[in-house]
């Protein structure tokens, strides 16, 4: 999601743009300001990807604002609003690197096209920088890459959490503060893993997921690092699961009908009390046959799979809420918080609070 700040001294235009932009996919309006100075004050404490600015405003005009944005927030892309009388200003804004300009009154189709162009520029530039960064780090990630390939080809779920933590730490180290390209760097890493799997005749694909609910529309600078870290964790975890599923299919390990039903059952009832017989009744199969089939096709028992779902849900609650450990334990199906903490540590390698501090510290 690209966050947008609107800067225009006409309230009607600010309101109109906010409404129309809120209806577009992939963008969100974080703030709307009456002049460039207020926008700069806001940017000093908040993160945004796109600045849509009028050229003529009191205190700090659009051109001055773009110059300041280029200097202080080089990851941002600017779009200019102008009237016919301000056309020379619009041309000057393009020389300063603005992606495009829109003439008043702003046509909805033009708005969609120009904002889409800005989003495409952001994505292309950040993807290029991420790929270049990954190439420069080539000598240092070979062992980590081999661990990913081994995990996926062996379908070894239990090694996944700590490997994701190690990968996250490596990516952050490479970023050197360039948090805005973290998502693209994560996707570049996943693509690298996919290319390595192809060398082993394992054809898998991963479509980038969504980060809905992981961050507020208005993102304070103090929350930028935790937000991008959480998005990267989600991306790496989703990719690992998708690639492992693809590896299973490539190895013809799945006769998925009954197993899929069991997985859906567990995803729905993971926090409730149930037994193997309940699951067997759900798929109309004997307990012994179901247990053998599930183990053959997933590499784990039904109960182990339930624990993995509970631990994933617990991880999300740890990183996105302020709930205490015992409250999270109750929400994911454990009455005893000590037992929950022990299971969490066995699964993730560290206890719940250590995991939260490691992945979501400021």
C-alpha Rg (nearest Å): 24 Å
What is the H/E order?
Answer: EHEHEEHEHEHHHHEHHHHHHHH
CATH fold annotation of the largest domain: Rossmann fold
Shape: elongated
Q: Indicate the CATH class of the largest domain.
A: Alpha Beta
Going by CATH, the homologous superfamily of the largest domain would be Response regulator
Spans of at least 5 consecutive residues whose pLDDT stays below 50 are none
Describe this structure in words.
Helix 3 (about 60-70) links the parallel strand 4 and strand 5. Helix content is about 60%, strand content about 10%. The chain folds into three domains: about 1-125, Rossmann fold (3-Layer(aba) Sandwich); about 135-250; about 255-360, Arc Repressor Mutant, subunit A (Orthogonal Bundle), CATH 1.10.10.60. Helix 2 (about 35-45) packs parallel to helix 3, helix 6 packs across helix 8 and helix 7 packs across helix 9. The protein is of the alpha/beta class.
Give a brief description.
With 362 residues, the protein is an alpha/beta fold. The chain is 62% helix and 9% strand.
State the main characteristics:
362 residues; Rossmann fold; five-stranded parallel beta sheet; 3 domains; Arc Repressor Mutant, subunit A; two-stranded antiparallel sheet
């Amino acid at each position: 999601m690209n966050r947008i700040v609107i800067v225009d001294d006409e309230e009607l235009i600010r309101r109109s743009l906010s409404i129309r932009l809120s209806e577009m996919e992939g963008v969100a309006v974080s703030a709307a300001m009456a002049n460039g100075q207020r926008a700069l004050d806001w940017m000093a404490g908040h993160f945004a990807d796109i600045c849509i600015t009028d050229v003529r405003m009191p205190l700090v005009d659009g051109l001055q604002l773009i110059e300041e944005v280029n200097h202080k927030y080089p990851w941002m892309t600017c779009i200019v609003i102008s009237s016919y009388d301000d056309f020379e200003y619009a041309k000057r804004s393009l020389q300063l690197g603005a992606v495009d300009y829109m003439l008043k009154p702003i046509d909805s189709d033009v708005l969609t096209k120009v904002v889409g162009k800005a989003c495409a520029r952001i994505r292309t530039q950040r993807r290029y920088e991420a790929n270049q960064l990954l190439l420069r780090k080539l000598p240092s990630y070979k062992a980590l890459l081999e661990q990913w390939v081994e995990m996926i080809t062996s379908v070894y779920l239990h090694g996944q959490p700590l490997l994701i933590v190690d990968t996250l730490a490596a990516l952050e180290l490479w970023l050197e503060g360039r948090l805005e390209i973290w998502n693209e760097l994560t996707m570049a890493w996943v693509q690298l893993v996919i290319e390595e799997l192809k060398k082993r005749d394992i054809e898998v694909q991963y479509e980038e997921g969504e980060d809905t609910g992981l961050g507020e529309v208005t993102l304070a600078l103090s929350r930028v690092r935790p937000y991008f870290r959480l998005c990267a964790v989600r991306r790496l975890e989703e990719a690992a699961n998708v690639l492992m599923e693809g590896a299973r299919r490539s190895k013809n390990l799945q006769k998925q009908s009954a197993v899929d039903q069991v997985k859906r059952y567990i995803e729905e009832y993971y926090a409730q009390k149930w037994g193997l017989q309940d699951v067997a009744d759900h798929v109309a199969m004997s307990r012994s046959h179901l247990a053998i089939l599930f183990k053959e096709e997933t590499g784990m028992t039904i109960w182990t799979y339930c624990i993995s779902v509970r631990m994933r849900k617990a991880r999300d609650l740890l990183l996105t809420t302020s709930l205490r450990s015992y409250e999270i334990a109750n929400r994911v199906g454990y009455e005893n918080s000590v037992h929950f903490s022990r299971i969490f540590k066995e699964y993730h390698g560290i206890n719940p609070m250590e995991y939260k501090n490691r992945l979501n510290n400021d």
